[in-house]
Design a protein that fits this description.
- This protein is α/β, with parallel strands linked by helices and 350 residues long.
- The chain has helices spanning 33-46, 58-69, 83-92, 107-120, 135-141, 146-161, 177-190, 205-221, 236-249, 271-285, 300-303, 335-345, and strands spanning 6-9, 12-15, 21-25, 50-54, 75-78, 96-98, 124-129, 168-173, 196-197, 227-229, 257-260, 290-294, 309-313, 317-322, 325-331.
- It has an eight-stranded parallel sheet.
């Protein structure tokens, strides 16, 4: 899975066969240390592996030093154009720098960033977005294409390689899911740097998750990608839960799986609130387990035979089942509680 080359963001390995990591970004002003630290903590608790902070000014770069004191996960400094901020963020202890060397103003500035990152063992993520490709490349390819994104990545890489810096991760994001997939396929085919996957500016939560699941999921299923960010116009912890769900759906991260039927005329219970309650409780349990919530007792246990535990509705009552075998019938109002008694005991409840 993923690239053979690898980098380390702090103590987290990206690439080289390491587990796929989930990233997100704070939305606070980074210089507001208490607010930013609180958001980092929330993202950590949600399951985020790597957290990026915006560094638009020196106060934000300096804040990294304090933020690092209480963060259990690596912190990435997100920088555009100003090489001095990259240097200051590196001095403050950033675990990774996100900057495009072709946009920082010349060879000596690239050299300065490469030198401090080499000295401190800090990798650089080159972020090629559909909206950040240089005019000459756009003219060459007639607009934003996968080839244009690839050429832009090569241009930035060569600037760092000139100063013997190769501790690099690449992203090639677009708001178009098909373009994003095509660009990453090209990068994966032609180079072996670790790839940071994402569909940028994907939208609000519903459509953003759909686009990200298709784009990121397609690439990961093809063995492409080493770390991911689901970009949403939503609370950033929702990015993390979505990213973790994508990894679980592909069998790339341990965790619970909920199987629930779409309902039909045979459905014997009010399935939606029960399924949502079970989903929430499973997230709190944090166990690697498969649980089914099915609408009818006729097909439920058989259709969800792969589930470790499950419930299926009937008229006024439902059944508990384990590995497809019915354990017992219980009144409808007791289904939820009896299900979790069975799960938490690990044994049949009859």
């Amino acid at each position: 899975m993923g690239s053979r080359k690898f980098i380390y963001a702090g103590n987290v390995k990206i690439g080289g066969g390491a587990p796929i990591t989930v990233q997100s970004m704070t939305s606070t002003k980074t210089s507001d240390i208490p607010e930013t630290a609180a958001q980092i903590k929330l993202l950590e608790e949600t399951g985020c592996d790597i957290i990026r902070v915006a560094v638009p000014d020196e106060a934000a770069a300096n804040a990294i030093y304090e933020l690092k004191k209480n963060s259990a996960v690596p912190i990435v400094a997100d920088i555009h154009f100003d090489y001095k901020l990259a240097i200051r963020a590196a001095e403050a202890g950033a675990d990774k720098i996100r900057i495009n060397p072709g946009n920082i103003g010349g060879a000596e500035k690239v050299r300065a960033v490469a030198e401090i990152c080499t000295r401190k063992g800090i990798p650089v993520r080159i972020g090629v977005n559909g909206g950040s490709i240089g005019k000459a490349i756009l003219d060459k390819h007639g607009g934003v294409t996968a080839e244009a994104m690839y050429d832009s990545a090569i241009e930035h890489i060569s600037l760092l390689n000139r100063y013997d810096f190769d501790d690099i991760c690449i992203s090639a994001k677009a708001s178009s899911t098909p373009l994003t997939i095509a660009a990453y396929r090209l990068l994966s085919e032609r180079m072996d740097y670790p790839l940071h996957l994402g569909v940028t500016e994907a939208g609000t939560e519903y459509m953003g998750v759909v686009k990200s699941a298709i784009g990121i999921g397609t690439l990961l299923s093809e063995g492409i990608g080493d770390t991911i960010r689901v970009s949403l116009t939503a609370q950033h912890e929702r990015e993390v839960t979505a990213g973790l769900a994508i990894l679980r759906a592909l069998g790339l991260r341990d965790g619970y799986e909920l199987i629930s039927c779409p309902t039909c005329g045979r459905c014997g219970i009010d399935l939606l609130p029960i399924a949502e309650s079970v989903d929430k409780r499973l997230a709190e349990l944090g166990r690697s387990i498969t649980v089914a919530v099915m609408g009818c007792a006729v097909n439920g246990p058989g259709e969800a035979a792969q589930a470790d535990y499950g419930i299926a509705g009937g008229v006024g009552e439902g059944v508990l089942f384990k590995k497809g075998k019915v354990v017992k019938k219980v009144p409808m109002e007791m289904l939820f509680d009896e299900l979790f008694l069975m799960i938490e005991s690990g044994e049949n409840t009859h």
